[in-house]
Amino acid sequence: MFTPPKLSPHEIRKVAADAVCDERTVRAYLRSPDSVRSTSAERISSAIARLHAVASKDDGRT
Fold this sequence. Notes:
Layout: H1 9-19, H2 23-31, H3 38-59
Helix pairs in contact: 1-2, 1-3
């Protein structure tokens, strides 16, 4: 079962920019990944993974 990550509006904008799609498409993907085209879903999924990778790397800094 798909558990959507919790993203702030700012993070949704960042993911949309990185995935080269509309914010509405990102929100639709977060509700149901099957509701968007597979190419968009791949780009959004990759963008979310990159966002989390950067965030986890930043958490280690002081």
